[in-house]
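User: Hello! I'm new to structural biology and keep hearing that structure can be predicted from sequence alone. Could you demonstrate with Proton glutamate symport protein? Please show me the input and the output so I can see what each looks like.

Assistant: Of course. The first part below is the input, the amino acid sequence of Proton glutamate symport protein. The second part is the output, the predicted structure written as tokens.
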Amino acid sequence: MIGAALVALAVGVALPVVGHGAHGLVGVLLRWVAVMLLCGFALGRRSLTPWIFVAMVAGAEIGFDAPGFAMQLRVVSDIFLRLIKTIVAPLILATLITGIAGHGDMKSVGRMAWKSLVYFEVVTTLALVIGLVAIHVTKAGVGLSLPVAAGVAALPSAPAQHWQDFVLHVFPENLIKSIYEGQILQVSVFAVFFGIALAMLPEAKRAPVLRLTESVSEVMFGFTNIVMYLAPVAVGAALAYTVGQMGAGVLVNLGKLVLTYYGALVALALLVLWPVMLLFRIPVLGFCKAVAEPASLAFATSVSEAALPRAMEVMEAFGVPRKVVSFVIPAGYSFNMDGAAVYLTLASMFVVQAAGMHLSMGEEIGMVLMLMLASKGVSGMPRASLMVLMAAAASLRLPSEPIFVMLGIDAVMDMGRTTMNVVGNCLASAVVARWEGEFGAELPSAVVVEGMAE
């Protein structure tokens, strides 16, 4: 059935290209037949992943066939994202506090911290270099015609980011404010300090608070399982809106840049992530199957936070202890944004090429070092990397006009960028667990097992 659906989809896409009129109508019918066949395939599966895939295909088709209607579907995906945002902060607080205070061994927490940071820095640096090499190979920005200056005025300016600003931004001044603004790193820092303070208390005083945080974490995982039932509908609505808003023309104009970026992501997966899995003896097929659902959520919504709760669940079910999952994945959302790292060097050099500028080897190395810091401040919200790019351009004294050109295709690139961020952080949790000798040493909780079975 899946083979017939793919054939029908391929023929349905090809017919309008080689013909017009009746060919276009037949193409539409074939594409919807493919959607129906995919629905039949998904009916025989208990997992949500096939339904998310079906929703992605159906959403793209709605966006192409009925863009006006598709533009009205954004409210569906917005509802889903709002529900997800209500989960993230309580989930991180509860799981991180429980993981630190319940562990009882501060030396072990310290080991997880430095191992995570070492892994984050190595992989992020390699991602930055891959983005730089990719854009040098394709030269996607060379010969680009810049828009008129009047259009550039609409681009918001961003101040240069200094290391002092980043360090200060790490620490919360108000927990409620940090939760409201979705500052994952600040919430995580509060949870770390709270967990350490809780671990230092006598058992009699620590136990009630620890039981509360354990209960809250279980409730939030249960909340996630409920919200995930909306995921296929939300994913389809998100893609329908994106395709209906952008259309296909913009992909033709800057298709070379998009292909360069996705080629760089493939290179990152094959040259960095795959060898890492082999080096740390992470089951490759099992890992790919585990991350399929959070990765598809990230791709369709372009919001890392949308996939965070499910990512934590699937990695716990995969064999990563909760204390590792609750520490590494939230920290990785600020320190290990692999997809964003590839994008930042690639996009910065695209700006340089489009402006007809030339950077020396020393200047490019300086740019990579600066972006190494800037990439640590990327949040999990859509198009957040674009704001970091503008800040980096201000620091490097690059023109803003080429960045304005990239606005039209940033949504397409953001899908791959967010997906790689999520996959990279899931792998980081498995690597740290294996490095600590605890991979597969702890059974997942009953609520997580129940969620994976749905």
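User: So the tokens describe the shape?

Assistant: Right, they're a compact way of writing down the 3D structure. Reading them back into a model, for example: The chain has 23 helices and no strands.
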